[in-house]
Structures
1.
Amino acid sequence: MVETSGVGVPGVTELNIEPVRLREFGMDLMTQLGVPQEKGEICIEAFLFGSLRGIDTHGFFALLPRMVREIRAGMIDPKADSCVIKRKTATALIDGCRGPGPVTAFQSMNEAMRRCRESGIGGVATYNCNHFGAASFYGYQAVKEDLIGLTFSNATPRVVPHGGREGVHGTNPMSFAIPAGKYPPLVVDIATSASSAGKIGQALKKGEKIPEGWALDQNGHPTIDPEKALKGLFLPMAGHKGYGLGLVVDILTGALTGSFCGKEVPALEDLTTPYGASFCMLALNPSCFAGVNMFKEKVDRLIEDCVTCPPMDGVERVYFPGELEAIEEERRTRIGVPIQEEDLDRFYQNLRDHGLDFKEDVLI
Amino acid sequence: MVETSGVGVPGVTELNIEPVRLREFGMDLMTQLGVPQEKGEICIEAFLFGSLRGIDTHGFFALLPRMVREIRAGMIDPKADSCVIKRKTATALIDGCRGPGPVTAFQSMNEAMRRCRESGIGGVATYNCNHFGAASFYGYQAVKEDLIGLTFSNATPRVVPHGGREGVHGTNPMSFAIPAGKYPPLVVDIATSASSAGKIGQALKKGEKIPEGWALDQNGHPTIDPEKALKGLFLPMAGHKGYGLGLVVDILTGALTGSFCGKEVPALEDLTTPYGASFCMLALNPSCFAGVNMFKEKVDRLIEDCVTCPPMDGVERVYFPGELEAIEEERRTRIGVPIQEEDLDRFYQNLRDHGLDFKEDVLI
């Protein structure tokens, strides 16, 4: 089913595609790419998670073509399971074995969750990983079982240290997913840089400038031109604070695993070499502290205080972290995932260029 | 020994006081206040940690009078040990029993460290706490034993949610302390608000304005006047990102312990009621992952990449997180902790007002 929505640029047709069709289409491609059924499902759900929650930079149409490219180039081993190298009561060191990023991340979070059920907390650090999509997908895994899920990943060094003009660490996302009672989960999912490549790319596409404080050009000078920013470097969020947090992410991932760290992390776009990012997953079990019911009651009250907070002038109302994404998820589950017709054509062409075979009417 | 340093405002005499004298002076007061020897030492070391590292808002002259006031008011029980309420292999829920904040925090971090030695990771959440001073003091405890130490505390709700104009959570600090090899530890110690009461107070004292984006006045309008800011509310760092992180701190502390959370946390300045903040301490053991030597090598390399990064125009050089504090610690350990003469007089008067007895020549 297709709906052409009235919003958007004149002359541009926007399609809304039902999630069930994206699943079917995606799973067919996964099979063609040699990704086993169960692993393919994890990847497609991770991509849909981004698309449904409005995180289009980490959604189906952004990440599926990336994975196709990386499997075809041999960067990703489509069949690889991750493998526990060292285990303790509450921790594990894991080799991601170049499996699909979402598969590795899902298995890592499972290991952390397994440990935290008994021990109260579980921590896993995983190396030899590929891009996992939206970090909060794996926190959600924990939330579904009334656990707290924390997710960290390092990335290609495109972020300058505070005061510097050379990339030293990545946009290094951190995500915290928290189970609530009567509200949707409270989800914080942020890059530790002021912005991300995805957001700057969106500004470029819309012909917009980017805010000051986001990026430097290739020569290390501040820029508001998204094109120069994408060829240049990103600034940490909140100056020295984001700089510190970005390094902490590299330490909990690359340093803890003894793998690539900071400037050592290869360029994601370089298809000639494995990516080699690292993840860290922590899971905490509220039932080992004051109990799940008490915990959810407290989280609900905190959320209540946020959403009933009087707004500043010019602000309609205050949302809690993850609320806008939950609203969008409900909406897009109902009406479908939006994509512009010309983007869909490019998406198809990209897949065909990689020798994939499909019927276009599966989606529309 | 006193040195009058030439820096500072004309007509203002700045004294530099040797750490050993501050220790002796402080321990005498601790005894008068009924704080047992071992606990008194923890408090004084926590205060000196702030003073030596240049974190004067969380140093000896700021926090000792606060503790005196709070012990005299009955908010702090000077003899109380914290008490484990619930234990799992890798976690503990602890009642801080209104002991001195640094004592509770020290004991909580010890519990987390004990668990992480065997299990790889340890997590402790503690309620019924008082102000612990500089968060990174407790991370340092872990670093001394080659462990990673994470510290979180909630606080009186003075920070608005993103877009709101009522305080919903505290400045909610988070600290990460990381052992390095040939470098001093990498230490991130930040409020999740754009600034802190301490820094705004310093601006007020110097007669300076504060930057935009730090605070709102009592009516919820942006202000750069530090006096109005101190009567008003603080903004989260980096907009929605700091808002999310601030809430996460309340969740890992107040919600996990089932204690005061967000708006429920009492006002620190209200001496008629216990403070009731909560802490969360996490410790991770690099030897349970890729090993301590490998870990330190990676952290060293990351630090190296930061300090050798070419600086932006107008910046002398790039420092790694914790480096400026380590330099200051070395300097102040040598030349002493600076204080203006009139501030020292006020400090003495404040102590006398609380019935404490001492000889002024202990310090100078």
2.
Amino acid sequence: MKAEIICIGTELLMGQIVNTNAQFFASELHELGIDSYFQTTVGDNEKRIHEVLELALKRSDIIITSGGLGPTSDDLTHESIASYFNVKPTLDKKVLSEIEKKFSSRGYKKMPAMNKKQAYKPIDAKWIPNENGTARGIIWDVGRESLIVNRISIREGIRSTIHNPQLTILTFPGVPSELYSMWNETAKPYLKKISGGNSIFSRTLKFTGIGESALAEMIEPVFDLKNPTVAPYAGLGEVKIRVTSKSKNLAKAKKDVLKTCKSILLKTKDYYFGDDEESLEEIVGKLLIAKKKSIALAESCTGGFLSKRLTDVAGSSKYIKLNLVTYANEAKNKMLNVPDEILKEHGSVSPQVAFLMAKGIKDLASADMGFSITGVAGPSGGSKEKPVGLVYFAIAYGNKVKVEKKQFSYKYSRADIRWLATQFALNWIRESLMVIR
Amino acid sequence: MKAEIICIGTELLMGQIVNTNAQFFASELHELGIDSYFQTTVGDNEKRIHEVLELALKRSDIIITSGGLGPTSDDLTHESIASYFNVKPTLDKKVLSEIEKKFSSRGYKKMPAMNKKQAYKPIDAKWIPNENGTARGIIWDVGRESLIVNRISIREGIRSTIHNPQLTILTFPGVPSELYSMWNETAKPYLKKISGGNSIFSRTLKFTGIGESALAEMIEPVFDLKNPTVAPYAGLGEVKIRVTSKSKNLAKAKKDVLKTCKSILLKTKDYYFGDDEESLEEIVGKLLIAKKKSIALAESCTGGFLSKRLTDVAGSSKYIKLNLVTYANEAKNKMLNVPDEILKEHGSVSPQVAFLMAKGIKDLASADMGFSITGVAGPSGGSKEKPVGLVYFAIAYGNKVKVEKKQFSYKYSRADIRWLATQFALNWIRESLMVIR
């Protein structure tokens, strides 16, 4: 069974956005054990969508599209797929009223007329519901003979005939957040079922504080394994290693994966922080709850980014009472009791100030742990002594305060330096909590 | 003149990396005024590279590839392109010695034998030098009759004959940093010369506080324009309208775009906030600088997200001194002087508390403007009276405090509600600053 990805959207051809959907589909298909050899991007243009479909239908069993399901006249995906098979989309009145309700629940008096088209689909296609928007996708098993015959008898100039009873088209909107939940809730279980009943088990090990190639070198031979397969995925300040096994028997697949994971972790555990969808902030949150500790933050160069990440986690109010963004020296002095003389003598980006900020926020918030960040995020504000990318961190716990220094490469952008600083901070907080009783 | 992008690499098919090269090429081609209708991704596989080439050569004049120029045996791009045209690559001894020098300058005793293949190319192709690595690309004008004839006379089973004297293939390695400088130094000047000099001008108008379809309906006829073209792009809490014009004359293209933008803004200006790459937080930052005002934030449910966004902007320390994340009632009371009785009587998510938080942070930070957010981000913590998605905002300026209430749909995720709250907040701050003298 082969799948093929078609991303539809003139904004992709114009380079306005990066195509992250293709990566999402590809990675998911890989996990499902479904081969995928081609990805195509095409604009919102019926003729060219037909061209791309024509080819994809010849070489693949499953066609997955994203984009072009919006309400405007340039959103053409469903219309183009239907017209390719010479089928006229029909109105689903139930779905229309659901879309109308969505608008009224969001405070609109009336659904805009153009959204009506989102309730049309080929009559025998099934909807993929979209919890987060009005653009539903479809699952259409177009490989059935009835449709093919219909298409061939009516459309002319078709060079090749499709005889592939497996042929199925799945469509998704282009907005990633909508697409992800549609995939997970509807498409993934469907594909799992039709892709032959092989059980797939997969675990992703997550690492920080090490680069992709250094980590890969530690465990190199595993990348040649055939089942389970092992693949690395590099991100900024984070590397993932995905171990996937395919078997008729789920228990066996699981056992194989866990065994391989164990052997990987033997060599890499110093950099490992969690599995699968677990984020660093979630793990820190779980540790704070497990250890019954509260934390308070004083941020300078990250400007609230660390607080944002920790509070991304639902229920974080259990361990966070108060965080401060003290951008100005005046605020560091007034709120955190960092003496003016220290700020003058050492500057706000210094181990001394990081130390006092962590202590100050711990005391102010009456928290178990105080954490501080102060650095130069750039692009300006750097000097020879304190270049862009220099960041100090401190943890105050009990009567102790520890300080760490990191020099991120000046080649990183402001946004990247701020991200990397929060990654380092969360990982250090995690490590510190691990050893607290 | 049409160009087409082919990205080659099994890591893309497995979803291990996001394909940022496609976006880079697409955006560069758009700027050069060269149309590009298709992007294809294919693995490191000679047969499938031939398949993709076969199609691309039929419909485009310029083929741009990335990936597959490394030294390992699975790097096949040059070999596959050459074999498609039945050409045997020849060794360029000068380039070989340059690669050897590169290795010795990096401290290697000897060039690894496998790197020798990076010195081979079709004899009549030109090199694209690579300053940052050993993988050179090529510019190959394969449209010349001699080659085509050669190919047709030798290879069999070819269905279509190419007669396109413009046909040119450009290859690049997959590593973005290598590719960018190769593009800018060699490929871009070459393409500029051969593409005939059409100029493109484009402007993106950005809107918030309105959905894509409602906005599109206000200006619907413009989507049918042929030159300039107008296209909408929807995001969460933000809609973009891009207006693009193509002309032999850049001044004319620009004039046409600005005229169309003006007519769009006549009907939509209430929701418009900026152009092109400008973000809401940048615009708020510019307004704060222009009006010489400082701002201080007190966040509850957004947990630092608004502070993070405002400090994403370089130079934001000019107008931000101190922000607070007061998650706990105790913190609202202690830091912002919100009386316990008010918190008890109305609850922390209430207009009264939003009011006092904004006033409290303004006073505490001695800022010109105080801004507060308190709400229920979910997924738990909602009630019948105060459901998930209910958020209060307040602005304190001068002696006045204004409060706003928003009820975001409970269907949005915690992350989306927090994002939408910061969008609303930034836009309200923007609107408020606009009318301040």
